[in-house]
Amino acid sequence: MSHGPIGDEASAIFDDEFDSGRSAVRIASVAALGGLLFGYDSAVINGAVKSIQEHFLIDDRTLGLAVASALLGAAVGAMTAGRVADHVGRLTVMKVAALLFLISALGAGLAQSVSLLVVFRVIGGLGVGFASVIAPAYIAETSPASIRGRLGSLQQLAIVSGIFLALAIDALLAKLAGGAGHELWLGQEAWRWMFLSMTIPAVVYGLLAFTIPESPRYLVASHRIPEARKVLTTLLGEKNLEITLDRIQQTLDTEEKPSWRDMCRPGRGPFNFYGIVWVGLALSVFQQFVGINVIFYYSNVLWEAVGFDESSSFIITVITSVVNILTTVVAIMLIDKIGRRPLLLIGSAGMTLTLATMAVIFGIAPQAGGVPQLNGIEGPIALVAANLFVVAFGMSWGPVVWVLLGEMFPWVANWLITVTFPELRSMLGVAYGFYAVCAFLSLVFVAKWVRETKGVALEDMHAELLEA
After folding, report:
1. 2 FRET partner, CA 20 to 30 A, in 237, 259, 393, 447?
2. Which residues contact residue 248 at a Cβ distance below 8 angstroms, ignoring those fewer than 6 apart?
3. Could you tell me if residue 335 is left (phi over 0), alpha (psi between -120 and 50 degrees) or otherwise beta?
4. What are phi and psi of 371, to 5 degrees?
5. How many CB atoms lie under 10 A from the CB of residue 253?
6. For residue 14, what pLDDT is reported?
7. Is residue 254 situated within a structural domain?
8. Whether the Cβ atoms of residue 107 and residue 160 lie closer than 8 Å to each other
């Protein structure tokens, strides 16, 4: 059937937008693979925690420092990634992150002392820090405003997928060897192969980084306008192309070289930060202080401590990671429809209830050798509560914070939670009580201070947020 001139024009516009949207999704998906490595590197140590402690004969405090060591590298990587990317480009930083992940996987897997393990985990942490900043920033800079929330959430989907992949491979390797501490291949224990397995996604990420274009914002900043025009055409089509280029240029012209002083209101003292800075800090801290990474760093030893055997603990952990993926998919479907703020409020309420439930169960549980013992129905209730906590986090604070923040501040908070948990295993009620309080405070914080950013273009958002 003939469309006529008007129909043909409308069809052409639709096809152009469809192709552009498809290109944006493909490019964002490749960039988000950095999140997969982020999740993989973060969670792969879960299956190895007990074996590391037994192999190197270290106490709980040293174990906590070893597990949390990657977060120190992540803090440095997150603080420096933005400036490095402004000098050498987003794609170069992605490739460097892939190389750091590769070095970390080989080094940690072959480490002959806990000190060497820590060194290579810190190197991997640098890669995590780079990926945590560059992937969401790159996705935001290459995504149409109408689908930016969903594409930004791909970072969190990739992270939780990386977590699942790492935990599933941990479980598989432990099963093949008959235990994480048993020898598997080439005279190496299964827990070492858990780290070594990360070499495969690291290489894939590095290679795919060569297949996507540079950020148009970086190209304009580098005075490579023809390249920027070509990339924007691929991403957005011909519609409003020159207007978009002009707006990017105007935004860059009004920006000064970034520094820590930029976060402070002029003439009001060194610590009088803009409201958006406090919001970003608080969102990141609350995201970690609810204790989500306790689930993904220590869940195996946690469930073993309360009576489950190693095999069952691995299965529970993998199931939890699947729940995390499914709820993240739900968040991606909802974030551009109902907004960021409602999801955060719903998630905070759910986390408060489930964490409080776990705090009560572990708080009243009888102790045996300094470890709480769950008997009867207490175990199943704790399992359900833990997975519902992951549901609440996965459909809200996990993906939404990545969308709201272009750069990340959570690493010190994450480090504090991770390094202290091994010594809190005998006081799980207190630990989960603290996380529950933080979840409730996150609810109050979002209700009072977090603004909605659904459907707002990045260039329009900049001035509006600085007014806060």
Report:
1. 237
2. 216, 217, 220, 228, 459
3. alpha
4. -125, 130
5. 7
6. 35
7. no
8. no
Within-domain flag for 328: yes
pLDDT tens-digit profile of 281-295?
677 777 777 878 777
| Residue 422 amino acid letter | P
Total Cβ atoms within 10 A of residue 174:
27
Q: Are 91 and 81 a contacting pair, CB within 8 Å?
A: no
* Residue pair 33/97 in contact by the 8 Å Cβ criterion: no
- SS3 state of residue 306: coil
Share of the chain above pLDDT 90, in %: 16
Cα–Cα distance, 52 to 332 (Å, whole number): 36
Mean pLDDT for the stretch of residues 301-310: 75
- Say whether pLDDT at 277 is over 70: no
Question: 267 lies in a domain?
Answer: no
Domain count, the chain: 1
Largest CA-CA distance found in the chain, in angstroms, rounded: 81
Closest to 152 (Cα-Cα) out of 31, 44, 70: 31
Q: Alpha carbon 229 to chain centroid distance?
A: 31
Cα 448 to Cα 453: distance, rounded to the nearest angstrom = 15
CA distance 466 to 323: 37
Interior/surface letters 71-91, b for 16+ CB within 10 angstroms, e for the rest: bbbbbbbbeebbebbbeebbb
For the cut 50, the answer to whether the pLDDT of residue 31 exceeds it is: yes
Chain centre distance of CA 284: 11
User: Structural domain of residue 302, as residue ranges?
Assistant: 19-212+272-466
Residue 235 belongs to some domain of the structure: no
Name all contacts of 225-228 with Cβ < 8 Å and 24+ positions apart: none
Report the DSSP pairing between strands 183-185 and 367-368.
unpaired
Amino acid identity of residue 147, one-letter, is: I
State how far the Cα of 242 lies from the Cα of 23, in Å rounded to an integer: 19
Residue type, 272: N
The dihedral sign for the CA sequence 160, 166, 172, 174: negative
User: DSSP letters of 381-408?
Assistant: HHHHHHHHHHHHHHTTHHHHHHHH-SS-
Nearest to 131 by CA among 65, 224, 2, 33: 33
Contact 429, 372 (CB under 8 A): yes
CA nearest 63: which of 327, 301, 383? 301
Token duo for residue 186: 């080439």
